[in-house]
Amino acid sequence: xxxxxxxxxxxxxxxxxxxxSHTVKLLKEYGAHVTVLDNLSTGKQYLLQGDDFxxxxxxxxxxxxxxxxxxxxxxxxxxxxFSIVGxxxxxxxxxxxxxxxxxxxxxxxxxxHNVKKFxxxxxxxxxxxxxxxxxxxxxxxxxxxxxxxxxxxVENIMSDSLAADGLQYAALRYFNAAGADxxxxxxxxHEPETHLIPIVLEVAAGRREExxxxxxxxxxxxxxxxxxYIHVNDLAEAHILALNxxxxxxxxxxxxxxxxxxxxxxxxxxxxxxxxxxxxxxxEERPRAxxxxxxxxxxxxxxxxxxxxxxxxDLKVIIETAWKWHKNDRKAGR
Length: 334
Ligand code: UFG
Hints:
globular, UDP-galactose 4-epimerase, domain 1
């Protein structure tokens, strides 16, 4: 279903972040005109890939009204969320304000300007502790933390707005986004870093002493948590397919995005040793609160309905691309 997007104007909010910047790059490769709105609270100027950049907040209604008047967008992709589970437990209101309240006020402005195609970054965290794996989209949503709840709330808001306003939307439930574009000019850079693969690579690069393994007695073959790592470019491609589906008239697309293959924390570290040629020392720590033992997606629905096919479904390749970016990024002194 991939097709030229050269007639399209797309607004990407949060386009200066990790997944946003990769999707902007791909949108441009398909020929779309891309405007990025980002408040740079976690996004980085050096990740910007769009045609235009507006520094500002999605909750600033005066600004977003002006932007909608000026550009006449065909669609919006929304990546501008806080996404650290542990932080969301300590600062829930920060998450509800940014991820929910500001998104609702943004949608109001968007609908007022008659823009009704919306692609939203959701998360595996909407499911909570899985009752069965691999997780399919009809698994009950019972999020266990404010981050997951904030995303589930927006999914409900979008569903209500579909009924009331004719909003067409896609909710893409990401599992563990990882890797970097092979150009190695953009990649994953969070401060503070909490994600496993970048932390492992920081240890390989000598910037940290060791990887702390959070929990070594889970009910899994090697005792460590199992996750489904999906390459960021495969995620980006799914956004293009979802956009095309909305253009073709589909009004609600809810899809899991994962590779369907689970790897334990120890397996990730082992592959990273092989890729980097470094030792990567580890210590075993207590489990992190709220971490499910196993999170693996079934992405059969998006494969079947939209023909999505991940290209980077090998963990070694995912880590190789992340490592190449990591070395370039450090060379740039960041
Ligand atoms: N881990 C470690 N040591 C570390 C960092 C992580 O052992 O230093 C472990 C975690 O305990 C977990 C696994 O590595 O078992 C992966 O952890 P990440 O922090 O990389 O990712 P999560 O699975 O916790 O989180 C991801 C997304 C979230 C999303 C969640 C869905 O980053 O946004 O999946 O549950 F909410």
